[in-house]
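4.2 Preliminary Data

To establish feasibility before requesting continued support, the project team ran the inverse folding procedure on a target of 409 residues. The structure was first converted into the token representation described in Section 3, and no sequence information of any kind was made available to the design step. The complete token record follows.
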């Protein structure tokens, strides 16, 4: 975390991944991010994975460093308070981030009526307004039909579990927020920014060349398992039952692989026999099965530790396959020695390593990672500090069930 955006206040109405990630990214840059949820929590408040006590590790992970306000958003007075917080005076405020359907009084027209320079960043499913989530968008992207082993029946999809489009959309929202705020700084004008999750997918598919490949070449890439498309890369079994991924993207990496395995001369003969240039990515891709036959035998005769020693400092691009337990237990990049992580006491869960911002700024020293708040933890503070409500009025709102703190959320 740092304080680069400490002069911004962002109000978030969100659930699941994309908008919470966008807001958390801003919070880790030092912005004041106020997440407003219905009393009792939004639909993602108890989402898996959870602790033994049932507290959501998912929610805690995506809401670090935010402030939490719990309001009766199903009641007009609760929504009026939410709009007042979102449009409170201040040069860095008036910014709202959401991936939820707008509630009455919290749409862009209402925000702009309350504050002319309001900025609303809104994520929708499809451009036509119909619903879509990461899993349905991914299903349409083409990737599930080229994920998995070759020869899986020509059409058996493998829908990966990484919510890639939500993550990309969340980071797009964070970038769009900064662009809209910079525009407001220059012109004084706010705006509504709308992003469709399906457009995030379509843009990425196009950026990677797959839309053009269909239009110009009339083809789509095939399912080739863990082979690297267009170059050499494949997974290999080790003598101790592990698997490693070995890649040779560049001529330097290709030569390093030959030296480290002692197979340089044998690998060179493949190019001559098959009449391909193994210094080119296309040549290595065409000869991938012959190359893999040699590398596979070499890996099968060594355990993971021996392969690690052979590749250490060699310039070979490789890595072991590992599950989440092996990642946390064995990978030094995931250890407390990495300043990305800090042991954080998360209310309701306990103390465990949490990641901070995966960026280092020379002008902004890294600060301790702050935990996610308890639901409604900051309700009273925000009503007092942001809206300047007196204690008697805050007490009335609590008694009327319009606002709630952590003990009642």
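Position-by-position output of the design step:
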């Amino acid at each position: 975390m740092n304080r680069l955006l400490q002069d911004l206040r962002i109000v978030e109405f969100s659930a699941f991944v994309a908008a919470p990630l966008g807001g958390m990214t801003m919070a880790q840059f030092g912005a004041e991010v106020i997440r407003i949820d219905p009393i009792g929590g939004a639909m993602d408040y108890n989402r898996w994975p959870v602790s033994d006590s049932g507290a959501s590790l998912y929610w805690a992970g995506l809401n670090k460093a935010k402030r939490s306000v719990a309001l009766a958003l199903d009641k007009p007075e609760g929504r009026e308070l939410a709009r007042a917080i979102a449009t409170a005076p201040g040069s860095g405020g008036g910014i709202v981030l959401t991936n939820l359907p707008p509630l009455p009084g919290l749409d862009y027209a209402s925000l702009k009526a309350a504050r002319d320079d309001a900025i609303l960043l809104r994520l929708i499913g499809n451009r036509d307004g119909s619903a879509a989530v990461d899993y349905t968008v991914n299903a349409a992207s083409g990737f599930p039909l080229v994920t998995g082993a070759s020869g899986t029946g020509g059409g058996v999809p493998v829908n990966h579990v990484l919510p890639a489009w939500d993550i990309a959309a969340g980071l797009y929202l964070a970038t769009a927020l900064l662009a809209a705020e910079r525009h407001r700084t220059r012109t004084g004008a706010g705006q509504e920014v709308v992003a469709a999750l399906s457009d995030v997918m379509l843009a990425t598919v196009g950026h990677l060349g797959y839309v053009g490949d269909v239009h110009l070449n009339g083809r789509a890439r095939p399912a080739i398992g863990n082979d690297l498309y267009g170059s050499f890369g494949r997974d290999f079994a080790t003598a101790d039952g592990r698997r490693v991924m070995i890649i040779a993207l560049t001529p330097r990496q290709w030569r390093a692989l030959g030296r480290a395995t002692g197979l340089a001369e044998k690998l060179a003969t493949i190019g001559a026999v098959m009449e391909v240039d193994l210094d080119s990515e296309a040549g290595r891709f065409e000869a991938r099965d012959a190359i893999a036959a040699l590398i596979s035998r070499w890996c099968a005769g060594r355990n993971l530790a021996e392969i690690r020693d052979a590749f250490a400092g060699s310039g070979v691009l490789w890595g072991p396959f590992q599950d989440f337990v092996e990642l946390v237990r064995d990978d030094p990049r995931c250890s407390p020695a990495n300043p990305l992580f800090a042991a954080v006491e998360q209310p309701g869960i306990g103390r465990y390593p949490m990641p901070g911002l995966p960026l280092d700024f020379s002008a902004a020293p890294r600060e301790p990672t702050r935990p996610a708040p308890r639901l409604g933890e900051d309700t009273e503070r925000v009503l007092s500090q942001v809206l300047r409500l007196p204690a008697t009025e805050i007490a009335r709102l609590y008694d009327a069930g319009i606002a709630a703190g952590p003990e009642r959320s």
